[in-house]
Amino acid sequence: SVTRYYQLTLKKVKLSPDGFERTVWSVNGQYPAPIIRANKGDRMIINVENRFGDPAAVHWHGMLQHGTNWYDGVPGQTQCPIPNDVSFIYNFTTGDQHGTFWYHSHFMAQYADGLRGALIVHDPDDPYLKEYDYEYVITLSDWHHRTTGEILPNFISPTYTGRRPVPDSPLLSGRGRYNCNGAPDGSKCKPNAPLAVYNVKKNKKYRFRIINSAADAFFIFSIDEHKLKLIESEGIYIKPTIIEKLPINVGQRYSVIVNADQPIGKYWIRATIDKRCVLINNATINFNSSIDWNGLGILKYEGSKNDKPKSKEFVENFKICRDLDPKHLTSSTQGDGIVKAVMNNSSFIPQFNDPTITKIIRHIPPEELPKEQNSLIFDNKNGIVEIALWNNNTDEHPFHMHGHVFGVMFVGEKNEYPDEKKYNKKNPVIRDNVTVPGFGYLVIRFIADNPGIWAFHCHIEWHVELGLVLQLVELPSILMNETIPNDASSLCFKNDYQKKRNP
Ligand code: C2O
């Protein structure tokens, strides 16, 4: 293992990912943000230089941050935001983790404005290494032409109706194609923007790492006339299974192997926003009809002609807005329950100027944390924690946990705590991001082995802004005796917390 240094300069630039020009909260001037790569066991030293003109912070989605809770990047929970014109070094190891991760701003809805990119941890012992010749990363996102600074004040207002903002374009690896008909006067918009192209050679095999980095969109991913061999879900190898279409919710990641064994030509890669998940409550929503919900990219064989793909889409019907059937995702097992907790009723309100971690380290008893911080406190080292979520609404919610992977013991529709006999104790899916169905129940379990303050939240960014967040206060009696490194604690003295985001 080695130490890897990365420089991420956060700055606003004008870009046109789908042909429409807007201000993008970029990393090093790019969208999507550059891919960060490492091997398992590497130390990551990542200097984040904030030139946004706004506070910011970066979270490493899926990295467990063993012993480095203060580099998890969550303002209000694990750090104070990085003020403008200040640099902050994140310093953590990938440990024994490997697989497909991503990174994004965890400050307000800033990642929807651009600060999101792939984080790939390679595994020299990857059991599938011999099964593919090359690898590619595909990031999926939903793109808005308005900044979140413009969207949020309307969204979070006394007249809030529950409608989520509807994106203008789906993007596949940062590229999409807006038809410009809906572009307001005075804006810069070019139709037929270039799509992402993946070059392949006949009879070679390719690993595609697919990351849903959307603010809201549930995607269905597929490559015309090519089956997908699923091998990884969120950093966990799984028994290979062949699928045609991959449903992937916000925050989730998968790897598939694609065999370029079809006739030489061009084939559409499809990333379709399942609008049923966005519009489910809002049949009457007045969405912009110029939106194309079908994101596209191109799989291009060497030697193919310079024309449009004519390929055909696989037909497959899914239960709407659901994770891939868990029978595709068998991995290892877990033990028996000890602690039980159910998410409470209050809406999370962060205290950016006094994050929970600093309160615990000042020895404020965890029971005295503000009620609206939705704390789940557990202090039993190596105990098994069980969390059940009952979703009292038609919307699905992709829940993500920081600091852990968990076993998915039960998912279903039932308005009562499911009987333990129904749990999948034999081979639950192990992951960090799972969909709670509409009017559904989710039961997960994990081991309390990582002292820290860990967010557990719906990854629909608009729901985060509405407070659909809780925090695990894990092993506080250990955490309270830790020392936050100077660089991390000093941020809290540099901050001008009153300063709100610029629109
Ligand atoms: Cu992708 Cu709380 O994070």
UniProtKB/TrEMBL annotation:
<keyword id="KW-0560">Oxidoreductase</keyword>
<dbReference type="InterPro" id="IPR011706">
    <property type="entry name" value="Cu-oxidase_C"/>
</dbReference>
<dbReference type="Pfam" id="PF00394">
    <property type="entry name" value="Cu-oxidase"/>
</dbReference>
<comment type="similarity">
    <text>Belongs to the multicopper oxidase family.</text>
</comment>
<feature type="domain" description="Plastocyanin-like">
    <location>
        <begin position="11"/>
        <end position="125"/>
    </location>
</feature>
<feature type="domain" description="Plastocyanin-like">
    <location>
        <begin position="371"/>
        <end position="476"/>
    </location>
</feature>
<dbReference type="GO" id="GO:0005507">
    <property type="term" value="F:copper ion binding"/>
</dbReference>
<dbReference type="Pfam" id="PF07731">
    <property type="entry name" value="Cu-oxidase_2"/>
</dbReference>
<dbReference type="GO" id="GO:0016491">
    <property type="term" value="F:oxidoreductase activity"/>
</dbReference>
<dbReference type="InterPro" id="IPR033138">
    <property type="entry name" value="Cu_oxidase_CS"/>
</dbReference>
<protein>
    <recommendedName>
        <fullName>Fet5p</fullName>
    </recommendedName>
</protein>
<keyword id="KW-0186">Copper</keyword>
<dbReference type="Pfam" id="PF07732">
    <property type="entry name" value="Cu-oxidase_3"/>
</dbReference>
<feature type="domain" description="Plastocyanin-like">
    <location>
        <begin position="135"/>
        <end position="278"/>
    </location>
</feature>
<keyword id="KW-0479">Metal-binding</keyword>
<dbReference type="InterPro" id="IPR002355">
    <property type="entry name" value="Cu_oxidase_Cu_BS"/>
</dbReference>
<dbReference type="InterPro" id="IPR011707">
    <property type="entry name" value="Cu-oxidase-like_N"/>
</dbReference>
<dbReference type="InterPro" id="IPR001117">
    <property type="entry name" value="Cu-oxidase_2nd"/>
</dbReference>
<dbReference type="InterPro" id="IPR045087">
    <property type="entry name" value="Cu-oxidase_fam"/>
</dbReference>
<dbReference type="InterPro" id="IPR008972">
    <property type="entry name" value="Cupredoxin"/>
</dbReference>
